[in-house]
Amino acid sequence: MINKPYEVIIIGSGATGGMAALTMARAGVRVLVIERGPELEIKEANGSEPCNMIRRLIGVTTGKYQNQPQHPGFWKSNPLLYADKKTNPYTNPSDAPFIWTQGNQVGGRSLTWGGITLRLSDKDFKASNNQSYKQNWPINYKDLESHYSDIENFLGVYGNKDGLPQLPDGKYIGNIPFTKSELKFASLIKEKLNFPFIHSRGFGPHKDKNIWPKYSSIGSTLKEAIRLGKVELLSNHIADRLILNKDKKSAKGLIVINKKNGERRKLEGKLIILCSSTIQTIRFLLSSEEKYNPNGLIDPSQSLGMNLMDHISTCRFFTVPFDKNLSKSSNKNNKQKLSGAGSFFIPIGREDSYEKNFIGGYGIWGGIDRFEPPSFIKKKRNTKIGFLIGHGEVLPNNKNK
Questions:
Q1: What are the CA-CA distances from residue 157 to residues 176, 337, 343, 347, 395 (Å)?
Q2: Cβ contact 32:267 at 8 Å
Q3: pLDDT at residue 20, as a whole number
């Protein structure tokens, strides 16, 4: 039970919440982290096979999981870490479908993300300074460069220094080899399309199921923040709205809802840091507006909820036939596991040759022969499974709301 005011309250315990908590804890600040989901035991979060596969198949056939199966990560983690759409419904216009993947537990989506750690470049920061947008970011790559290095050193990530101006190199502990199928695919990409084909950058496979993976906040940043003795965690509570000071220029606390009994209560802090997902953060701010609450948040620009920026992705699976020229042992499915760095990446957008006709940034993450679904659901035998996920960045647009 939380009964004292904190210097800082952080909403969200995922990737950004964990980093914010660690930054504050290192500075000696007392922090309360609020999470809408439960605090899971590690065995509960991991699940086990074949139980996870049974949950996936039941979830897909009953409609609990409608969008998650489009991502390879769904097939290698416990599906209970993905929010059930029937329990957490949302609406969208019929002509504007929106795929919203939520992770409502301590650690959030840091427990299920792909584990890719790419740096933004100055090309990314300057992209919105275009005739169509004319919006400058208040920071640039140089402002972030040292912070990128600090985080990469702390987490220990893999990658290769490729010298690409649109994708700055980082601090890596080595790279994870391509599979034979990926090497063959790489030669075709370079020969036919002349696109760069690089080792993906990020985390390697998680090997010990008895400890939290380092790519999760509870296995790295949040774990270290709590160890420093300055951070307390409040799970199963929904952040409902802000409480402002009388001048309406700053916040003094927030109202939270206990998910178990519906009780509402006030929590006070000198600083409130919003670290939940893009949509949940906007939901929280809109709920705090003056039109819904006396002494509520004032939005003089009337733009709150517009110009949402997030990353979008779409996935396609494919099969590669066994190579008849290889031996039976070479044709067997590879045992190299899929991970953020155990894969490949094809950076395409924001290269000089594309800038005249395309100002966005995108790339393709993929892997071949790194994971196999159960044989009974494979449509084609004697093949290896591959996937390509196109990642695109949304630039500010008032239609995104």
A1: 10, 16, 13, 19, 28
A2: yes
A3: 97
Give the position of tokens 């190579």.
323
The pLDDT value recorded for residue 65 is: 85
Q: CA quadruple 108, 111, 112, 118: dihedral positive or negative? A: positive
Report the C-alpha gap between 321 and 333 in whole angstroms.
Answer: 11
Q: What is the pTM of this model?
A: 0.89
Whole-angstrom Cα distance, residue 275 to residue 210?
27
CA angle 349–353–359, rounded 5-degree value: 45
| pLDDT tens per residue across span 7-20 | 999 999 999 999 99
Q: Please report, to the nearest 10 degrees, the dihedral formed by the alpha carbons of residues 211, 217, 222, 224 taken in order.
A: 50
**What number of other Cβ atoms are within 10 A of residue 27's Cβ?**
11
Average pLDDT of every residue of the chain: 88
Distance CA 41, CA 231 (A): 19
Give exposure, 242-281, as e/b (b: 16+ Cβ within 10 Å).
bbbeeeeeebbbbbbbeeeeeeeeebebeebbbbbbeebb
Compute the Cα dihedral for 19, 24, 25, 31 and give only its sign. Answer: negative
Interstrand relation of 362-368 and 6-11 (parallel, antiparallel or unpaired): unpaired
Task: Specify the pLDDT at position 332.
Answer: 64
Rounded CA gap, 75 and 359, in Å? Answer: 33
- pLDDT tens digits along 19-42: 999 999 999 999 999 999 999 999
Distance of CA 143 to the CA centre of its chain: 22
Spatial separation of the C-alpha atoms in residues 275 and 393, rounded to whole Å: 19
Cα distances (Å, whole numbers) of residue 134 to 50, 332, 359, 397:
52, 53, 12, 11
- C-alpha span between 354 and 66 (Å, rounded): 35
- Going by their DSSP bridges, the two strands 231-234 and 31-34 should be labelled as parallel
Q: What is the pLDDT of residue 377?
A: 64
CB 194 within 8 A of CB 206: no
Give the closest residue to 372 by CA, choosing from 13, 21, 75: 75
C-alpha distances (whole Å) from 133 to each of 139, 396, 397 are 17, 7, 8
Taking 80 as the threshold, does the pLDDT of residue 201 lie above it?
yes
Residues 351-384 pLDDT 10s = 555 555 666 678 899 999 987 766 666 677 778 8
